[in-house]
UniProtKB/TrEMBL annotation:
Residues 13-44, 87-110 are annotated as: Disordered. This is Uncharacterized protein. It comes from Streptomyces natalensis ATCC 27448. Residues 13-22 have a biased composition (Basic and acidic residues).
Amino acid sequence: MLDVSDEVRAEIGDEEADRLLDGGDAPGSYDCTSCRTPGDSEQERTSTVLFVGEETAVLAFAHATCIPSQVVPVSEEQLKGAVRSITGKDDDTAHTPVQEPGPVAPPPAGEHQATLGITCGLVLIEGELRPALVVEPNGPIARPGSMSQQDEFLPLLREQGFGNVTDMNQLPAPNPGWSALLAMGKLHAVLQPGSAGNQSAWWQAHQPLAVSEGWRAAANKAQAVLMYAAPAGTIGHQPREDLMRQALEQAAAQGVLVAAAMPLAGTAA
């Protein structure tokens, strides 16, 4: 009951793909690379997920209900982390909320490269805990070529489809083309629309970011995450989710919070 997509087949070759489909190299029991719970390729539909680095590649398996068979480009450093995770030799521990700085690639509107802090936490909306990413740069972001010191972070995100948040009890609207790459139970990147219908990394973790089991379960249940963004110094590094929620509500009341809902990468229709 193994699924091998055309793009995975193109990477591993017809011989290996056919061997997998014939059961020769089928994994049998495995830990899903997305939700990290047990799976059985003989009992349920299973996706082959190929992580490709600069020099090496790792084949992993996932519940077909979590993510489809696909090729996931990652850095060589991330791939080493993937191997540790697959072999069970990854000692990372997850805490909620989880915070991680990482580089952000310039969006199409021309945002300068900057360092962003990303916090993974759960927010209660409409009586349900929702997985959220809270993004805050480490300083003002100006447009390329501008001599102004004015922070253009929020205007640039608004231009790309992120909406103003006025009420934290309302779900943000979807932002087509954006997605969050959650693979092997960790957050790898936030992807933005690219050229020719492809996606590029808007933010990418230096190392895959461990998330809590509750956050991962909520993300897999909804097959989507909420991304909130605020200017530098607005939210801060909050050690608890109730404090994070309070900071978000204050930012919304001040009119300096934008947000959008986005699917998990590879699961959008």
